[in-house]
Amino acid sequence: MMKPRISLFAEHEREDRRTKIGDPLVGLTNHVDFDALAASIDAAAPRPSRAKGGRPPYPTVLMVKILVLQQLYNLADDALEYQLLDRRSFLQFLDLTESSSIPDSKTIWLFRDRPAQAGAGTLVFEQVQQQLQKHGYMARCGQIVDASLVQAPVQRNKRDEADTVKEGTMPLTWKPRKRAQKDVDARWTKKHGKSHFGYKLHASVDKRYKLIRKIAVTNAAVAVADTTVFEALLDPSNTSKAVYADRGYPSAERESALKQAGWHVHIQRRGHATKGISAAQKRRNRRIATPRARVEHVFGAPAQMGGKLVRCLGIVRTTFALHLKAASYNLKRLVFLKERGLPPF
Questions:
Q1: Nearest 5°: phi and psi at 144?
Q2: CB 335 within 8 A of CB 31
Q3: 97-122 burial, b for 16+ CB within 10 Å, e for fewer?
C-alpha cells in the first residue's frame, strides 16, 4: 500500500494543482458586477438601522455572493455555513481567506428573508439582465416559452384543513407557530399520471444564447396554457419575433392575437381524444421540436442547481428563491459564454 507523502510544502503544492485545474468561481469575479446586485437589494430592502447599537451587519455585496454560491451549489443554510468554514475556493471568492468572521446559517436566513419579503427578486433578476446587455448578450433569434414544476415540502393536513387552505385562508385552529410551518400557497397537480405538490416556474428563454429573459412563478395548479402568464412572458426586446412553445400552449384565440401583434408563432399542435393530428401537423411539430428543445437544456441546468425543489414556504419566499435561481443560472451561463462560448453579435 502506498503511504501518503509528507511534505512541508503540501499546501503550496495543492494550491498549484488547484490553479492548473482552474477555479470555476474566478469567472464570476471577473465578469459579474456584484456591487450593482447589492445596490439593487439595498434599494428594495434597506439595511436595518443601527440606532440601537448591536453588531454591524455584513456588507450586502458579501451576502449577495453567498446567496449566489448557495444557488449554484444547492446548499441548505447549515450546509452552506459548513462549506464557508471548510472550502477554500469559497473563501477566496468571498475574499475571506484571512478572516475569522464568517456568516452563520441564521445570518444567511435573515438576510435572504429581508429582500424576499420586500419582493426584491425582480430587481435582482433585472439587474442581471442589464449586465447581460452590457456584455453584448442581447436576446436574439426568437424566444422559447415553457414551464417546469418545482417541488415544495409536502403539507400533511386533515381533509377539512385542506379544504380551507384551497379557499385561500388558514384554519382558525392553527396557532401562530403552526401557521409559520404551513405553506398555504402551493398546490397539487398531476403530470404524466403522477401527483406533484409545489409551484410552477414559467420562463421565456432566448434561442441564441439560452439565457432566461423573463420568468413568472405560480402555484403548480395553474395551467401552462393560462393566457395571462404566456403573454406576460413574451420579451419584446428580442431581435426576432419568433415564438416557440410545446403542445401545451395551442389556442386559436392566442395564435390569432399573437399574429395580429406581429409575432411569428411556432406552437406545436395537439391532438384530441376523438381526433388526432394530421401528417402535416406532425411534420410541423417535428420542425418546431428541434429549436424548442433548447429550453430543456436551460431547465436542466437549474435542476442540477436544485431548481426542481425549494426549501422555503409560501409563494413570496419561493418567488424570490426562483428569481435568484434564474439570475444565478444566467450569471453562470454568462461566464461560459464569455470564456468558452458564443461571442456577442
A1: -120, 125
A2: yes
A3: eeeeeebeeebbeebbebbbebebbe
For the chain, give every domain's residue range. 10-48+56-118, 141-313
Contact 315, 219 (CB under 8 A): yes
Strand positions, DSSP E, the chain: 143-151, 187-191, 194-206, 212-219, 242-245, 264-267
Give CA–CA dist 332/338, Å, rounded: 10
Q: What per-residue confidence (pLDDT) applies to 5? A: 67
- Vertex 63 angle, CA 61 and 68, to 5°: 95
CA angle 66, 56, 109 (to 5 degrees): 40
What is the distance between the alpha carbons of residues 250 and 265, in angstroms, rounded to a whole number? 10
* Grid coordinates given for 207: 434561442
Per-residue pLDDT tens digits for 223-235: 777 667 888 999 9
pTM, entire model? 0.89
